[in-house]
Amino acid sequence: MINNKKIKEAKDFIVKENPSNWRDLRQALLDLPNDKNNSIAGHVFESIAKAYFETRGFKNVWAFDEIPLRISKKAGFDGVDRGVDIVLEDLKGNLSAVQIQKESK
Fold first, then answer.
1. What angle do CA 29, 30, 33 make, to 5 degrees?
2. Mean pLDDT for the chain?
3. Residues 34-75: tens digit of each pLDDT
């Protein structure tokens, strides 16, 4: 399990690197210190993807561990991890499940 301190340090590293495009972001994720198996980069990329969707006009954007129980039941998850990383709710209340995949090293 990755602790929140390591994820925060990784996010701070990305901010310091200040990538201006996807290629630079990819390189910054690959250059994360202390991430030999690339798992911290995956968590950071999920956070970046969530932030992106939050700017796209959705009513709600939840990371899997943030999904309210009523939404989890509506989507048929019932708290079971089915590989979904983010759930989007549009302005009409429709739900979309998103699986985030970051390119491996």
1. 85
2. 83
3. 777 777 888 888 888 888 899 999 999 998 888 898 888 888
Domain parsing of the chain, residue ranges: 4-98
Sequence-distant (6+) residues with CB within 8 A of 41 are 10, 29, 30, 32, 35, 102
How far lies 62's CA from each of 9, 33, 98, in Å? Answer: 22, 28, 10
Write the secondary structure of 42-92 as one string of H (helix), E (strand) and C (coil).
HHHHHHHHHHHHHCCCCCEEEEHHHCCHHHHHHHCCCCCCCCCCEEEECCC
